[in-house]
């Protein structure tokens, strides 16, 4: 039996008496931080929460609007950003962000996750689930502070306030009371430089991926394709009958215009390259664990990348409910609901996992899988998948429809060239993760000393 004995005088200002709040791990951390030079976060920075545009309606272009679901390995993932208007941005000046700001997910499923705003995002705003911390003390490196809170000592402080609450929420008082060790500025800067390297690797990753995508579109002859918003289109009744759809969205000219160009290539359908597949199982959320076998959900699938920062896990027993939904390294996963059509390859370090409902998982054959996933995530794949899902009350697509999308086949040498660029992109992103882990270890070593 494990317990802690707490004096009444030790009860903190948070007025918490639950046992979870006074776990020995938390008490040890408090003692460690108090035995060295440190300050409260509110003493070196300011905390501000964001808000969401009326009705939760976003813009297609404008000012980057950050949500906690955009956090990925301590940076803001820009691959699926939404935007707010200039007017909204100016009405919410306090929650504006700039490079170096530290963002905490303060409520909801992602609570405790965080990001440091990278140089790429010159300006932006945040929603109500995010607390922005801007370091105003000139003797404190904001990147060091961000990396400190990403490390175990920082995460333990966050966990301490989350633990035991019926409705987990980090308020400004709690965030402001986080303790930050104030190391000599030279040490802070050494740690801070890690974030610069992480940023650089992420930028390399994006550049390689962009090169791969541009090469693909050039080889397909659609690099200069422009979406034209025509007000109407004329279709034959035979076309309506063939697809059994008569909604205007399905027959938007942009779809036909693009596919007319793609059909000039050597064409097959996706089913020709599928060895075996499954479409996920509705595993019960009450069976989710913090450790075990990874359960891949739609939120884990990013454009070309599998993000396991917010991953649920299952026991071996729970997995046996649907053995056909086991996924292995090299399999491809594709979202069939919500943001439909986003796909990624399961990386080599995930030997075994399972897929949740509304995810297509398949093993490919007779095609370079990096080429295939890039194609699916490009305008060629997304337009076809978007078209299938358009017009329904709830946007869902089925394998019956997905299997028939057209896959243009470029020469093997070209496929390989594209795949090599994709792999270089993945390697750069992997290096960024390694640098992040190294930075966190360095922080922990300095705190221990």
Name the shape in a single word: globular
The total beta strand count reads: 23
Kindly provide the radius of gyration, computed on alpha-carbon positions and rounded to a whole number of angstroms.
24 Å
Any guess at the CATH architecture of the largest domain? Alpha-Beta Complex
CATH homologous superfamily title of the largest domain: DNA methylase specificity domains
Distance between the termini: 31 Å
Portion of residues within helices: 25-40%
Task: Characterize the biggest β-sheet.
Answer: 4 strands, antiparallel
Spans with pLDDT under 50 lasting ≥5 residues? 236-244
Structural class: alpha+beta
Q: How many alpha or pi helices?
A: 14
Q: Tell me the CATH topology of the largest domain.
A: Adenine-n6-DNA-methyltransferase TaqI, Chain A, domain 2
| Total domain modules | 2
Order of neighbouring strands in the sheet with most strands: 2-10-7-8
CATH top-level class of the largest domain: Alpha Beta
Strand content: 15-25%
Mean pLDDT across residues: 87
Detailed description of the structure:
There is one protein chain. This protein has helices at 24-34, 41-44, 86-91, 142-150, 152-162, 172-176, 185-219, 237-243, 253-262, 316-319, 369-377, 379-389, 399-402, 412-448; strands at residues 38-40, 45-49, 63-66, 71-72, 75-76, 82-84, 102-105, 114-116, 125-126, 130-135, 179-181, 267-269, 274-278, 293-296, 301-302, 305-306, 312-314, 326-327, 332-335, 343-345, 353-355, 359-364, 406-408. By secondary structure, the protein is an alpha+beta fold. It has 2 domains: 8-182, DNA methylase specificity domains (Adenine-n6-DNA-methyltransferase TaqI, Chain A, domain 2), CATH 3.90.220.20; 221-409, DNA methylase specificity domains (Adenine-n6-DNA-methyltransferase TaqI, Chain A, domain 2, Alpha-Beta Complex). Strand 4 and strand 5 (75-76) form a beta hairpin. The longest helix is centred in the C-terminal third of the chain and has 37 residues, at 412-448. Mean pLDDT is 87; it is low at 236-244.
